[in-house]
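Quick check before the chapter quiz. The format below is the same one you will see on the exam, so make sure you can read both the input and the output lines.
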Amino acid sequence: MTNITVKLPPIPRCVLIDSRKSSRNNLLRDLKESSLFEEVTEAASLKNALDQIRFGQFDACIIGPTLSPERLLSFVQEAISLAEQKGCAVVAVVPADNNSSHILRAAGTHAVVASPYDKSRFSEGIVLGVISANPNSPWKTLVEKHFPDIQYLITKKTPSLLPEGEFDEMTALDQILTFFSDSNSFLPAGSKVSHQAVEEVKELAKKLISGMPESGQIRAFLNYLETSLLEWVIEASTASPELANGSLRQKLLLFGHKTKSDEPGLVG
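Here is the expected output.
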C-alpha cells in the first residue's frame, strides 16, 4: 500500500471498542498520536458501542484485535447496518496470523488493519476506511490530490470490467455451483465461518482466474472474487441461499458480456 504522508486535518470523532484493557489503551494511545480525530470515545461494551453509533455522530468506529471471532463478526454486521446510514467507517484491527480479514471484508468492513502494525499503516487503514464510508469526507479531496490512484486502495471498490473474453462467467457459475454443492459441510452456523471455508474459497477463486495473465487488475479481481464468494457463504447461512445466489450472480456478471437470458442459475 502507498504511504499516505500528506498531513490531514483532524475530523471530529471516533468510537473505540476492544475487549482487553491493555489492548484498548494501546489503540487509544495510537489514535491520539495519529491526530486524525479531535475526540476519541471509549465504549464500555459492545452494546454501548452500538448505542454510540446509533444515537451519536461519529466519523469512525475502531474495533480492536482482542474481540473473539464470533463476537467480532456479529458486532461488525450490526455496526455496519447502523454506520452506513451516517457515513461512519467501521475499521477493524485484527491479528495478522488469522483469516478474519477476508471474512470481515466480505461482511462489509470499510478497512482492516493487520496487527502488529507500524503507525503509518494504522493511519492509512483508518483514512482509507473513512473515505470508503463517506465520499463527502474532507479527507477525500486531499488524499486524491496526492494519490490519484486512491480508488484502487479502497476496500469496497469493485475492479473495473475485464476485457471481452477474459472471464467466462458461464463457466465460473458452473464451477461455483459444483463447488458449493460438494462443500455444504463447511457452511457456517449463524455468523461463524470456518477456517476451512476461507481456505477453500480462496482456492476456488484462484481456480476461476487460472490462465489469466498476471497484472494488477487481475490481482484486484482475485481479491474481489474471494470477497464475493465469502459474502455468498455468509449470506447463504444468515439470509437464504436464493438471495445469496442472486447476489453472487450479479457480481460475477459485472465482468462478463452475456445478456440476461443467457444467465445460468445457481440453485440452493
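If your answer matched, good. The radius of gyration is 19 Å.
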